[in-house]
């Protein structure tokens, strides 16, 4: 073997080793159940509650979660492209979506962990704090409705748009009087600055807004809603969500497509466990399982000695 041949062979061997090393690094796991790093794609309309849980989880374990807030459609597209392995949504996957994952030999683990609500808001300068769901549906269908000058959504690809489209039985697109913002935060700001409009948001943004948004939240009212099968107006309070009275309630799910015992499994267990469920209860939403309370009964009262 001459010198040139040896050089070529050596180059090819090094190239092969480099390719194999890249493949190994690409498939290398960066997390276990309670340690490491992972990205979680989150439906933007429920971001505040996920941020709360993330903060406690990271303090309790040696883990770093990178939250990626997106619209519902964007999160799903990221999952189908294998960009997102862990996602938090306001609905479970459909049969067709499950089949699409299974065709790629992926079996998503879906864990429900809370009940949230789609809420309507108005500028506080409006005296009316009630709204009829059928009026909203009629407005979406192009009818003129007294008291509603316009509906303000976060964006066309959001879960709130999909949710009300299903309620109305029509696709919400470019109908007259339908306005689109970037996210829930922008909806709150827009309604706080404009009278006569009805904003559509995830309730968690009102229960636990970012500090910098509190001033705008204080300028809006959450509306009581009369459902199509109801004779009374129901506000989206924690009690009404828990007993199933509010007509626009929705469940929250964490979808794990990692395929191994990683932070997707760990965070899902945390959300569904005692600590995570208490965080959800404190946030104003309804946990999937009400956390237990331990009551200690004392027969004697011991006075503290001064």
From TrEMBL:
Among Gene3D superfamilies, the record links this protein to:
Periplasmic binding protein-like II
This protein's UniProt keywords: Signal
Q: Where is the signal peptide?
A: 1-21
In terms of superkingdom, the source organism counts as Bacteria
Q: What is this protein called?
A: Substrate-binding domain-containing protein
- Answer yes or no on keyword Signal: yes
Q: InterPro entries, alphabetically?
A: PBP_domain (IPR024370), Phosphate_ABC_transporter (IPR050811)
Please tell me whether the keyword Chloroplast is annotated for this protein. no
Q: Where is each PBP domain found? A: 39-271
């Amino acid at each position: 073997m001459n010198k040139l041949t040896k050089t070529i062979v050596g180059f090819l061997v090094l190239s092969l080793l480099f390719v194999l090393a890249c493949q190994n690094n690409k498939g290398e796991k960066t997390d276990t159940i309670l340690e490491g790093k992972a990205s979680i794609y989150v439906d933007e309309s429920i971001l505040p509650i996920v941020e709360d849980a993330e903060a406690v989880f990271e303090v309790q374990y040696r883990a770093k979660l990178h939250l990626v807030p997106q619209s519902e459609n964007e999160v799903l597209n990221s999952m189908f492209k294998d960009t997102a392995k862990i996602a938090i949504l306001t609905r479970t996957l459909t049969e067709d979506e499950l089949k699409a994952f299974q065709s790629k030999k992926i079996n998503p683990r879906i864990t429900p962990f809370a009940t949230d609500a789609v809420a309507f808001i108005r500028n506080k300068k409006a005296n009316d704090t009630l709204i009829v769901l059928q009026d909203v549906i009629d407005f979406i269908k192009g009818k003129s409705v007294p008291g509603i000058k316009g509906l303000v959504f976060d964006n066309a690809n959001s879960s709130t748009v999909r949710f009300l489209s299903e309620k109305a039985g029509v696709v919400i697109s470019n109908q007259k009087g339908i306005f689109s913002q970037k996210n829930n935060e922008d909806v709150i700001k827009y309604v706080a600055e404009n009278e006569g409009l009805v904003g559509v948001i995830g309730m968690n943004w009102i229960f636990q807004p970012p500090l910098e948004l509190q001033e705008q939240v204080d300028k809006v009212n959450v509306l009581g809603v009369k459902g199509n099968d109801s004779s009374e107006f129901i506000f989206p309070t924690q009690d009404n969500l828990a007993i199933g009275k509010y007509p626009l309630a929705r469940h929250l799910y964490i979808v794990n497509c990692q395929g191994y015992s990683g932070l997707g499994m760990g965070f899902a267990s945390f959300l569904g466990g005692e600590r995570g469920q208490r965080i959800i209860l404190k946030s104003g939403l309804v946990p999937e399982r009400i956390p237990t309370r331990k009551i200690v009964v004392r027969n004697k009262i011991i006075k503290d000695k001064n």
